[in-house]
Write a structure and sequence with these properties.
Number of strands: 2
Strand order of the largest sheet: 1-2
Radius of gyration: 28 Å
Shape: elongated
């Protein structure tokens, strides 16, 4: 009878230890993934491309291109909303423009990591030649009136400097992982039903 109560007590204690251990392990795993993804400067080109594939980002940049396009036209040319939308769509899908945007979004990611300044605008002048050709087939008047200097605002005014968060995670993740492993091992050694501890740990890992 005493042995049975002792076994129950040990399983309860192990459960009390294992719960926080797995929770801490979850935080450590989240931090590890963050350091290998959004906080990894070597992934800047990939993240920039992923941002440009984001519908909200593309919509905002497209709207800004439309505004810049409308503002660039002389007073004698008044564009309606449909013309602006078509022009912006043609410009933003230009491969040269896409590369310029990806480069700017890469700098934005580096600014997020505290490694660079976030660009407020993007200069599309290097893409004007190809843009004129693409626009010419659909809107020759707009293509002819494109200025030599064509800057578009970027939605980067609220980009935070997350470098303190990255430094915190770099210190905290190994510590949290060590604490989690130590507590899980303690729970394993404490319990009278080690298969139960292993099962919970396995389900958490999955």
């Amino acid at each position: 009878m005493v042995c049975e109560h002792d076994g129950v007590f040990r399983r309860v204690i192990a459960g009390i230890i294992l719960g926080p251990a797995l929770l801490i392990g979850s935080f450590a795993w989240w931090g590890f993934l963050s350091l290998r993804t959004v906080f990894d400067e070597s992934r800047t080109p990939t993240i920039a491309e992923e941002l440009l594939d984001n519908e909200a980002v593309v919509e905002q940049i497209g709207n800004n291109i439309g505004k810049a396009l409308d503002a660039a036209m002389p007073e004698s040319i008044q564009l309606d909303d449909e013309q602006i939308a078509i022009g912006a769509e043609i410009i933003i899908t230009d491969p040269v423009v896409r590369e310029l945007i990806i480069e700017s979004l890469g700098k934005t990611h580096r600014a997020f990591l505290g490694l660079d300044d976030a660009p407020a605008t993007i200069d599309l002048a290097p893409a004007l030649e190809s843009t004129r050709v693409r626009l010419g087939a659909f809107a020759p008047t707009i293509a002819e009136q494109l200025p030599e200097s064509f800057e578009v605002a970027l939605p980067t005014e609220r980009i935070p400097n997350a470098s303190p968060v990255k430094r915190f995670l770099e210190r905290a993740v190994p510590l949290l992982a060590a604490i989690s492993v130590t507590m899980a091992l303690l729970a394993f050694l404490t319990t009278s039903d080690r298969s139960q501890v292993l099962g919970k740990a396995a389900r958490w890992a999955i």
